[in-house]
């Protein structure tokens, strides 16, 4: 780096011998370089930050749109059904959104799909809770005990 500055000084001064004046010119050039280096780094950092901010903002807008839809869907479902919690609705919503068939659908259609998903879950749970064990009365009649 110093060689480059020395060459530059020599070219500007038509190759005079390095004297106090040449060294002073070299120091002036070096000080300008090191003074401007932080400002150049700041400009580069600002440009990188702006690019990252734009990408974050575009990503957050899509997430915000999904959250707004989720809020609306949760409020619609809770208005009609009391048995579903916010977390249950959110899980069902996330599963419905992941499906390719839900792309491009309106809020009303997605709400229907979420409700269907929740009702399917409920029916599956209720089937598991039914026991096929015989009752006490049935056992007494079977064993003919009074």
Give a quick rundown of the structure.
The chain has 146 residues and is mostly helical. Helices cover 79% and strands 0% of the residues. Helix 1 (2-12) packs across helix 2 (20-80) and helix 2 (20-80) crosses helix 4 (107-129).
Notes on the protein architecture:
By secondary structure, this protein is an all-alpha fold. It is 79% helix and 0% strand. The chain contains five helices and no strands. It is rod-shaped, with a radius of gyration of 37 Å. It starts with a helix and ends with a helix. The mean pLDDT is 76.
Mean pLDDT: 76
How widely separated are the two ends? 108 Å
Number of helices: 5
Specify the overall morphology.
Answer: rod-shaped
Write the layout of secondary structure elements.
Elements: H1 2-12, H2 20-80, H3 86-98, H4 107-129, H5 136-143
Helix pairs in contact: 1-2, 2-3, 2-4, 3-4
């Amino acid at each position: 780096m110093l060689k480059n500055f020395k060459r530059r000084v020599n070219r500007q001064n038509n190759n005079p011998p390095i004297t106090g004046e040449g060294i002073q010119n070299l120091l002036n050039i070096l000080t300008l370089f090191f003074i401007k280096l932080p400002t150049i780094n700041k400009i580069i950092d600002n440009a990188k930050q702006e690019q990252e901010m734009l990408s974050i903002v575009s990503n957050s807008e899509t997430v915000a749109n999904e959250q707004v839809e989720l809020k609306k869907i949760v409020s619609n479902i809770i208005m009609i059904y009391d048995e579903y919690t916010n977390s249950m609705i959110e899980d069902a919503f996330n599963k419905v959104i992941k499906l390719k068939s839900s792309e491009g659908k309106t809020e009303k259609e997605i709400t229907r799909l979420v409700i269907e998903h929740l009702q399917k879950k409920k029916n599956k749970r209720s089937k598991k809770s039914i026991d096929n064990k015989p009752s006490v009365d049935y056992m007494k009649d079977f064993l003919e005990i009074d």
